[in-house]
Every structure is written in C-alpha cells, then in structure tokens.
Amino acid sequence: MSDTYPYPIARVGLIGGGQLGRMIVRAAKQLDCTTVVLDPVENSPAGQIATRQIVGGYHDASRIRELAADCDVLTFELENIDADTLAGLEAEGHPVHPSADVLKTIQDKLVQKQFLQDNGIPTSPFEAVERPSVEQFEAFGYPLVQKARRGGYDGRGVAVMKTAEAFDQNLPVPSLIERFVEAEKEIAILVARNPRGEVATYPAVEMCFRPGENVLDLLLAPADIDTATQAEAEAIAVKTVEALQGVGIFGVEMFVQRNGEVLVNEIAPRTHNSGHHTIEANVTDQFEQHLRAILGLPLGSTEALSPAAMLNLLGAPGESGRPVLRGLEEALAIPGVCLHLYGKATTSPFRKMGHITILDHDTATAKAKAMRVRDTIEIGAEETP
Amino acid sequence: MSDTYPYPIARVGLIGGGQLGRMIVRAAKQLDCTTVVLDPVENSPAGQIATRQIVGGYHDASRIRELAADCDVLTFELENIDADTLAGLEAEGHPVHPSADVLKTIQDKLVQKQFLQDNGIPTSPFEAVERPSVEQFEAFGYPLVQKARRGGYDGRGVAVMKTAEAFDQNLPVPSLIERFVEAEKEIAILVARNPRGEVATYPAVEMCFRPGENVLDLLLAPADIDTATQAEAEAIAVKTVEALQGVGIFGVEMFVQRNGEVLVNEIAPRTHNSGHHTIEANVTDQFEQHLRAILGLPLGSTEALSPAAMLNLLGAPGESGRPVLRGLEEALAIPGVCLHLYGKATTSPFRKMGHITILDHDTATAKAKAMRVRDTIEIGAEETP
Q: ipTM, 2 decimals?
C-alpha cells in the first residue's frame, strides 16, 4: 500500500532554533515527526523542545551536512542561511523545502524584486544600488526606501527616507532603493504549497507596525479590506508562490494603496510572524501546514474559526537579563487571551520574548483587548541583587 | 509588585507520562513552564517532550519525592498512583493539585459513590461488595454494573450484567454494584477550578463507546441535548467539583436518562479523553486550563469556536509491534481533520496511539467525516521480516 507511513512519519531537520522553529517543533510532535534543530545558541527556543539540537552556525556547512545526514527533509525558519550548501545537498538527493533556489531568490532582496518584476507581480518601482550616492537617490526621487540586499530582518537593513535630507541615514552596503509606498494598509497572506502543486491560502491579515521600529506590533485577522481586495491580494500571493515553485509555507507581505491597488512588498519563504494567530484561530495552523507541505501530505483546512488579534511580547526598553513577567495574572484574566512564551533565557529591549493571541467575536473587540494587554503585561529583567 | 512571575513561570511535576501527560507538557511549554515527568517507561509519550523524565513507578514513594523536590507543584495524569505519599508531601508544604484527599476520594470507586451520595449529587443506586455472591447480586437486582473499587481504567475493572446468568463474569475483588442505567446519552463536562474557587466549565460533549469494549470511540461536541439538560448537567458537574474542593480540571461523566434526568457516572480528577477536541475547538484547551488552575492563574475562556468530533486512534486488532500508519494521506485530505500522534514506540490491539479531531460547521458533518476517517486510517504494526 503506497499510503503507508512509518512512525515517526519523518525526521525533520530544521535550520534555526528561534520561536518560529519552536512552534514548528511543537507541530512536528503532534504529527509524531522527530526534529533536529541547528542553532548556534545551545538550548535555543526550538532546541529546548526538539528531539536533538546540533550547536552550529546557520552558515556552517559541516553542521548543515551533519543535520542532513540525520534527517529525511531539511527546512528552515529564517532565510539568512547557507544556501550553497543546501543546493549541494539537493544535488546529492536530500530533499530541501523550500528549495535552495527559492531561498537564493528571496535572500537577496534585489534578486527578489527582479523576480517579482520578471513574473509580472505588482511591486513598487526599484533600482539596484552599488554604493549609495546623493545623485542616484535624487534621480530616483524621494520618498524612497533603501534596503540592504542581504541580512535584513525585523526592520534592520531598511532605511526609509522621506526627503533628500534623510540621505545620510543610508546603508553603505549593496542594496536597492524602491519607491516608498503610501499604504492604506499593510497586509499579509500565508500561502502553502506542496510538491504536487496543491495550494492553500489563509485569509489576509492586517499588520500594524510600531512607528519607527518596523517590528510587527499588532496583527488583526481578518484584515479590514473588501472582498475584491481580498480576492486580488490572494491571487497575487498565489501567483507569487507558484512562480517561485515554492514548497512549504510563505508569508507574502503586501501594501494596499489608497486606490485599492495591491503591491507585493516582500516574500518570507517560511512561517511568518503574521501567522501566529493561526494556532488558535484557524483549523490548521501555519506550522503544521508547513510540515504537511514539505512532507508531501495533503494541505489542511485554512478556515478561520474566529477573528483574532496578535501582539508580540517584546522585551521592555532599558531592561536586559533574566526575564520576569509583570502583569501576567491581569493579562490572563482577560477572556480570549492565549499566551505563548518562547523560553528565551535572557531579555533585552524589543527582543521577541513571546506573543499573545486574543480571540473575540470581532476584530475591533480583539484589538481593544490587545491594547489592554499591551498596557498590562511587561517582560522586564530581574533586578540584579 | 505581586503580579510578577519568574521565567519559567513554574516547574511542574507530573506523575504519569502517557498521552494526557504529553498534551499537558505541550501546554506547559507554551506557558514556559518546565516539566518533570515520572513514568516507569523510559522515553514515555510525555517524557519524550518534557524537560526531564524520572523513570519510576506511580507508587514509588522515593521517586515521587524526588519529583517533588525538583518542582513547584505536583499534578498527575492518571489516578492509580500513590496518594499516601502525596498526602505526606502536602503535609510538608508541597503543593499537590488536585489534592491527595480528592485523589483518595476518587481512586476508590466505592468512596467516590458514597461521596456523591453524601453530597446530594444524583447518581445511580449502589451497594458495597466485599466478595461477590449470587445472593447479594440477586437481592440488589439486575441489570447491574459491578465495578472494582480500585485500578479500573478504560473499561477494565467493570462488568456489566444484564441478567443473573451473567453472574459468572463477576470480578472477584472488593467492589461495588450499581444499578445499570439505561442511558439515552453519555455525556461529559469538563470543570476547571483554581485555588481561589473560580470555576469554568466546557460545553457538554457526547461520548460514544465501541460496543463491548468500553473505550471511548467517538466524541461529539457539543452534545445533542436541550438547553435545560445542558444547564442541569453543568450545575451538577460544578456542584461535584465544588463539593470536592477540587483544584485542576475534572472530567465529570454523566448519564442522561430517557426522562431527561442526569446522573453522575464517574469523576476523573484530571484531563480527560472527552476533552481532546478542546485543543482545536475551544479558546483555551483543557491542558492549558489545568495548568492555569493548578498554578493559581485566572482560568481561560472555554468558549467553543467550532463543533467537533473526536476519534481515538486505536491499535488495529491482531497487530503488535513497531507502528505503521496506513491511509494517512487519505485521512489528512479530508478538510477539518487534525491529527495527533502520541509517539508510542509499539502498537498493540486497541492501544490508544493517537486521536483525530474533526472540525466542521455542525456535529453531524463532523461525525460523518469521523466515520470516514475511521474507515480510512489504521495504525498497524510493521511486518516482521
């Protein structure tokens, strides 16, 4: 019988041991997959709960090979990893999902933009930048956004310049500049695709960023957009992942402009902060969906069971060290509050220490509760005696 | 500030490393509690994913003491454990939830019945049995159910006797006999209670047993009962847990008779098979709720997000050994199917190897899908070469 699986179903190798990895491991256990995590930090959030952790860097070819040798399929929770080694492993027959090619396309933000453009996927106008110059930026015109080609994350590697006066904030690295989009809303759609080409999309969510920090602060599901915009955004997100021939889950971040037009901002070739609420709010969460996709299993239902708001719990400003939770009881007393902590041994300002999902009958109430939670709970550091 | 918690929030000691324990550990990780599991089988389902497992028996006083020494609070996932040692630990100031007293009341089915009677909680008539005799059973009258006072589980330790001819199936142990209840439905209500006396109940679920085996086969949430019966059952379940002064989560199993009258069948002082669907179908699942209760945190919302059916995945008859899953892809292709595997290293006939929750817009559709799943997926054993 072809539809017969061993037990455990598969051995999953995961590059990256942060919170996304932790939630992948959690889903893997439910499906009885074993997991080996590669992360430089011993006892990483994912490593703590995985079958085993290999301590090593994301660019350490020999450690990545060690991981591959022990696993049926390789995947990752972040994109700043050694894609060449993954390409070599693929060539030797090791399944890697998403593929090294997809990863390479996305790792380099300039290549990613070109890919979008080449495939007729709407995105803002852009130009390659070898070395920032007043002239080039001026000729391209403000307002603009400069993005480092590699290594950006959570707002690092991005400079928003509204006017020419901001030029001295430029990033002195290989980069691109793109038109700053005056977005009505920023939304994201998660798209899963398995090796047979089956695709499943989650309802669009609305992302709210803390001004000036560019770290996702509050998320609302579903996004407050009309059905036509939802349909357009979904079609664009699916087209993007199909053009990539991506396998796994992808977070497609988009701008909705005042005129209703949708532009792709960036693609995340992995589980995404904008999908944390799917753990409680959708039939199949993004982490299990990713595993279903990379294991070649049928994709699960993405149906939303409830509106939701999601709040990242960031380390309090000015506090570093062993974490303490203030206001925990008060926050948990709010009906619909679901707490997720990541098991990080130390906190620092704005570090992602956990998240809270709030389920309610409408997003407005969920959002109001999220605001209360944000004023209530705080992750600070123990006072050093 | 009083509402300040360390990180991890607490160290939870768990007696029993089966699937219920596994799902408690999973919830504990989300709240960033560490867990130490005591179980006689190395690499038990819960031990595999806990911070640490102590290998030892449920009645091994020294191992239970070792567990207590390492944890802030003790709890359990099964009731056939050493209650005297737990009582001793409580006397020494170790928090144990539910308490040793509650455990002792429930462990002995005769004491449990007497407790129900003494507290005016409706339950079927019963009598203590020192040693089964034709005369006593005849005088009590058939149909009856004989239950061993101790150690019964999943239908073991229970003999249903419709007529006097069945007397030779009697259990030759200290026991009780009770009136066989011609139930219209068997339902269960989960009740959580924290040390401050806050109580939360889940909507009643309907339990369907496989004829002759007494293992929960299929569960439907919500139960198909009218609001008056739901309200009566809920009031009885709450009264039961309050009479016990129980802390933690309790599964109160009840019979609904043809005339609508509700009788308590048995109390489980722990997370319960009838609450597995709460992982997907309710805002707060029973496992997190149990932790919130025993840690003295506010209880979470028990609201149902979706109707659900739950199916235990039992080891196929006639097959023992290393498990294989047949029909996995076909089952996962059914929308709304959520798979949970327990990581057990060997299967045997009717062993609980996992469960499947099916979410759908109504219980009838969910049930129909559950029937399809039951015909589709099978956990058998690898053929020995």
A: 0.91
